[in-house]
Design brief:
Alpha-Beta Plaits, 4 strands, 5 helices, 4-stranded antiparallel beta sheet, alpha+beta, 34% helix
Length: 119
């Protein structure tokens, strides 16, 4: 992946953030993890302070437009940005736990069927 080019950088003091629009040239669409890494190195901020808004590609083009907000702190980001369901679930609860299913007793279901046919 090549260098990130800044198209527009706007300071937003109301929300304590920088609003970034840029582009990156790549054969395939950059993942959110790769984009976070690029932005954190470019702007020298922790990855937790960055919220990626869009990674947009045009058909047949190797240039991808990226929109992101860079906050002064993780608390500012968490208080302002909406969280997706995946982000809201704590890590402890995110682990899949096997659901115990109670097997139905075949005798009872047969008895119920017999009762219905008798009535």
């Amino acid at each position: 992946m090549s260098e990130f080019k800044i198209i527009e950088e706007k300071e937003n003091p109301l929300f304590n953030r920088k609003e970034i629009k840029g582009s990156v040239e790549s054969e395939i669409a950059p993942s959110r993890a790769e984009t976070l890494e690029i932005l954190s190195k470019k702007f020298n901020v922790p990855r937790e302070n960055i919220k990626i808004k869009k990674i947009l590609g045009k058909f047949g083009s190797n240039v991808f437009d990226i929109e992101a907000n860079i906050y002064s702190s993780e608390q500012d980001k968490d208080s302002i940005e909406l969280k997706k369901k995946k982000e809201k679930v704590p890590e402890e609860l995110a682990e899949e736990k096997p659901i115990e299913e109670k097997p139905e007793e075949p005798e009872k279901t047969e008895e119920k069927k017999e009762e219905k046919t008798e009535q």
